[in-house]
Amino acid sequence: MWLVEARTTFTRARVIALLCVLVAVPVFLALAVYLSGGPGAGQGPAFLDRAARNAVFTALAGLAVTMPIFIPLAVAVVAGDSIAGEASLGTLRYLLARPAGRSRLLLAKATVVALFCLSAAAVVVVAGLVAGIAFFPHGVVVTLSGTTVPFLDGIGRSLLAALVVGASMWGLAAIGLFVSTVTDVPIAAMAITVGAVIVSGILDGVSQVAFLHPWLITNYWTAFANLIRAPVRWHEIGQDLWVQAGYVAVFGSAAWARMTSRDVLA
To answer: Whole-model pTM above 0.70?
Structure first.
């Protein structure tokens, strides 16, 4: 069942289009920096002022640019469509007619969405590395702490950053999966999931509700930058993963409760 769900998801035209857009962003970013020289020190999105110095920072700049909008939007589309899309097409009842069970179907859908989260971040980093190597130097990497690490170490850190960013999307994916079990309209599920990101981002910038910030889904999304320090600062990364685990536990349980009790014949 899992292989069927994975193949179905990753061969859909809209999913391929989303991944192509994510690949294009760091490539065009690298080309723009190559042609213009890039912004001055401390200007522009994170890492963009360093993109021309090393290919590793080109990949990280791609992550920083796609993290606020592009990756969450892609995750919202895939997660929101996971159950609601089947319901809108009338195929959900046929999927459940097989001796698979609702819990197993939901688990298969959830793990495929989780894999997509990792894949979305990975394609950004890989495309950024390829474009960075094509346009910019790729020697030793000067970390944010001022020390240097070998280029292969920098590649490893950028790939680990993709893993962290992908895992940072799991909480959002759980929200999208839950909403997808509540409605039969995929676009509504996608919109509500994107709305959760927007609301969290707005609240994250309001100092009057600072007590909520550690619990917001977007609060630690930039923690991956700590991987480019020496030594690596794991505290914020750990906080991010704990928050995502909490959202997965809450909304994953809610999705299971809804999925196992909904009337798919209605």
So the answer is: yes
